[in-house]
Design a protein that fits this description.
The chain is an alpha/beta fold. The chain has one domain: 3-Layer(aba) Sandwich (Rossmann fold). The strands form 2 sheets. The chain has a 5-stranded parallel β-sheet with strand order 2-7-1-8-9, sandwiched between helices. A 4-stranded mixed β-sheet has the order 4-3-6-5. It starts with a strand and ends in a 7-residue tail after the last helix. The mean pLDDT is about 95. The structure holds adenosine-5'-diphosphate (ADP) and guanosine-5'-monophosphate. The site of guanosine-5'-monophosphate has 16 residues, from strand 5, strand 6 and helix 4.
Length: about 200
């Protein structure tokens, strides 16, 4: 049996990371892919855990060696999904979550039409700004860039399989878990009476 591939996108600060942690706590046999990035680690980030932090030269090498399932430039840095890490889990029947931007999401959908694309929306732009300021992991200038990018990213939601509005955190977590459980139910469905 092969696992399901889920792609989660949404504006920075919408709550993707928070939701994914809660989903991983609620469900078994689901793995969150760790991407490679050329951006610098934030103070609380651990190499190999949050991301694999790599040089530009190493990122070029990964592209040349076809080591990335998809990659994109986001907010001025490059990010990519490590192909081998994802494929061996899917082949082992483990569900995989990619938390990536829309450019990457559509590359994945082209290669894997069965991938389930989920867009996480903030309840409003004002709340998005409040969350980014409260998280305090970016400078004022970086927050402004992310808010600007959010306005464009939100148009992409029409091309996703599902949209989850992250207003109430418990409700949004349940919505995400339900989407994953529904996909598992389809995979597990008997193929009909062979008689
Ligand atoms: P993303 O991964 O999409 O950039 P985060 O998961 O880091 O976003 O969330 C951004 C901030 O908003 C964090 O400080 C998080 O604790 C907070 N947050 C997430 N979901 C909610 C919610 N439903 N209500 C209020 N605050 C939230
Ligand atoms: P951050 O720097 O805040 O961790 O992430 C910035 C953006 O990069 C987010 O929109 C995130 O979803 C996206 N991102 C993270 N990893 C990948 C990846 O492997 N591929 C793509 N295309 N985007 C990614």
């Amino acid at each position: 049996m092969r696992g399901n591939l889920f792609v989660i996108s949404g504006p920075s600060g919408a709550g993707k990371g928070t939701l994914v942690v809660r989903v991983l706590e609620s469900l078994k046999d689901v793995w969150l892919s760790v991407s490679a990035t050329t951006r610098d680690p934030r103070p609380d980030e651990v190499d190999g855990c949050h991301y694999f932090f790599v040089s530009n030269q190493r990122f070029d090498q990964l592209i040349e060696q076809n080591g990335l399932l998809e990659w994109a430039s986001v907010h001025g840095c490059r990010y990519g999904t490590l192909r081998a890490e994802v494929m061996h889990r899917l082949e082992a029947g483990i569900d995989v979550i990619l938390e990536i931007d829309p450019q990457g999401a559509f590359q994945v959908k082209e290669k894997f039409p069965a991938a389930i694309l989920i867009f996480v929306m903030p309840p409003s732009m004002a709340e998005l700004e409040r969350r980014l300021r409260a998280r305090a992991t970016e400078s004022a200038a970086q927050i402004a860039t992310r808010l600007q990018a959010a306005k464009v990213e939100i148009f992409a939601k029409e091309r996703y399989n599902s949209v989850v509005v992250n207003d109430d955190l418990d409700k949004a977590t349940r919505d995400l878990v339900d989407i994953i459980m529904a996909a598992r139910a389809v995979v597990d469905e008997p193929e009909g009476d062979q008689a």
